[in-house]
């Protein structure tokens, strides 16, 4: 629905929108799709007319709702949380920052930095926690950029993308490997990928973004160093995918269209048939990544696993090996994640409940391993680890086994070549703030 005055065939002016916040977001995505039909890549002359959607209070409200529902609980340096203001007060805040966004003058405050241990056990990762209003602006910027970027991403890129995840990446790796007899797995990891993104080169690739937004975006991703984008920002995963699409995914498809490469954020998997193929793939990865500012963690020999010769490959927290068919087992990285999760749970006020949630969530992820692990041994190991790390009681084995079994059923549905027709699960609902009377509406 839209109000009178709209000319068919042209983007709907922001002021002509009517309906819920979700309707507003869907209309913007529809307008962007219409632009994609004309141009394969974003063009400045097409993105500028849609800039109003970025600083519209409804887009900022959608960003706030997302942070409330899915964002972290830790506040920024100012200590402000979403519940500190009513929705009408938040709209007053959004109207106050609108002129700064329109003119490209919005300047975020310095974030709070926190170090967390990496899942690999090798070093620490610095997370930057910004003030809530800065996170809202970053998320609103993401919501504007995402529809332009997503259609151009590599089809075998799975990290930080809608309706994709580690299970989808693992399913594709197993499917391609078994179907084409490609049992040499070249598993690479980029060293400190977020910290190595060349910001100036990234901003050059974003020249199609309207200048006001680009000025604000450059401040949002400024880390105070020559290179790098901040970990913890809503924008960073999207921008990392965008940069790697230009400098790795697209060149790879042009130079090696018959060699499957899968990427989950900064984790890369290349499937080849022999050691010579692995060496060639490793050399090409280095030729593409080194000039782009990145570095591979391991050499070709250490990164290559010959599954056909009985070796195993560790990727995305799973250990893949051959036992008649490819088997998927729990990797060391997953056990470290469980241990750290239990340590954090034991430090909370409600330690027993938190530890229970960590354990059930851990088993809820392990669906691909259910048919390949010694289940009794895994259950016993998880409970022993919980008893050693946390003294807040334990979860009944039956509950953990049920969580694991339910996870296996979801994995089976995902990998079923002939899926049954099922009704879609109810999607996350956005509060229905409806535009009726402009005088009564908070935006």
Automatic annotation (TrEMBL):
Signal peptide region:
none
Where do the Reverse transcriptase domain residues begin and end?
A: 97-320
Q: Which domain of life is it from?
A: Bacteria
Q: Which family does it belong to?
A: Belongs to the bacterial reverse transcriptase family.
Report what the protein is called. Group II intron-encoded protein LtrA
Can you name the source organism?
A: Anatilimnocola aggregata
Q: What is the lineage of its organism?
A: Bacteria, Pseudomonadati, Planctomycetota, Planctomycetia, Pirellulales
């Amino acid at each position: 629905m839209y109000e009178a005055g709209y000319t068919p065939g042209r983007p709907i002016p922001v002021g002509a929108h009517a309906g819920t916040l979700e309707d507003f977001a869907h209309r913007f995505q529809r307008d962007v799709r219409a632009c994609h039909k004309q141009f394969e890549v974003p063009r400045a002359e097409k993105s500028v007319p849609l800039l109003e959607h970025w600083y519209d209070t409804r887009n900022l409200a959608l960003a706030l709702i997302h942070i409330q529902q899915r964002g972290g609980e830790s506040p920024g340096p100012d200590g402000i949380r979403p519940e500190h203001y009513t929705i009408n007060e938040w709209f007053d805040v959004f109207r106050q920052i609108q002129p700064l966004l329109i003119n490209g003058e919005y300047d975020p405050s310095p974030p709070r930095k926190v170090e967390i241990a990496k899942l690999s056990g090798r070093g620490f990762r610095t997370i930057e926690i910004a003030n809530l209003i800065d996170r809202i602006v970053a998320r609103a910027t993401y919501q504007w950029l995402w529809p332009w970027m997503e259609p151009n991403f590599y089809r075998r890129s799975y990290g930080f993308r809608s309706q994709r995840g580690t299970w989808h990446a693992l399913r594709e790796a197993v499917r391609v490997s078994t179907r084409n007899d490609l049992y040499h797995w070249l598993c690479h990891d980029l060293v400190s990928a977020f910290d190595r993104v060349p910001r100036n080169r990234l901003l050059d690739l974003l020249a199609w973004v309207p200048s006001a937004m680009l000025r604000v975006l450059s401040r949002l991703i400024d880390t105070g160093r020559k290179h790098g984008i901040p970990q913890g920002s809503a924008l960073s995963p999207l921008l990392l995918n965008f940069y790697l699409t230009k400098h790795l995914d697209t060149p790879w498809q042009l130079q090696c269209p018959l060699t499957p490469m899968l990427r989950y954020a900064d984790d890369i998997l290349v499937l080849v048939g022999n050691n010579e193929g692995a060496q060639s793939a490793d050399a090409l990865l280095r030729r593409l990544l080194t000039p782009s500012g990145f570095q591979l963690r391991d050499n070709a020999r250490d990164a290559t696993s010959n599954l056909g010769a009985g070796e195993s490959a560790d990727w995305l927290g799973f250990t893949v090996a051959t036992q008649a068919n490819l088997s998927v087992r729990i990797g060391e990285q997953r056990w470290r994640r469980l241990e750290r999760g239990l340590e954090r749970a034991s430090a909370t006020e409600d330690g027993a409940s938190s530890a229970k949630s960590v354990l059930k969530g851990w088993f809820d992820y392990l669906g691909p391993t259910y048919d390949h692990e010694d289940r009794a041994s895994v259950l016993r190991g998880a409970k022993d680890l919980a008893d050693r790390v946390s003294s807040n009681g334990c979860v009944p084995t039956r509950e953990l086994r049920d969580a694991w079994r339910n996870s296996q059923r979801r994995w089976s549905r995902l990998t079923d070549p002939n899926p049954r027709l099922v009704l879609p699960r109810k999607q996350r609902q956005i509060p229905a703030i409806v535009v009726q009377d402009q005088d009564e509406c908070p935006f």
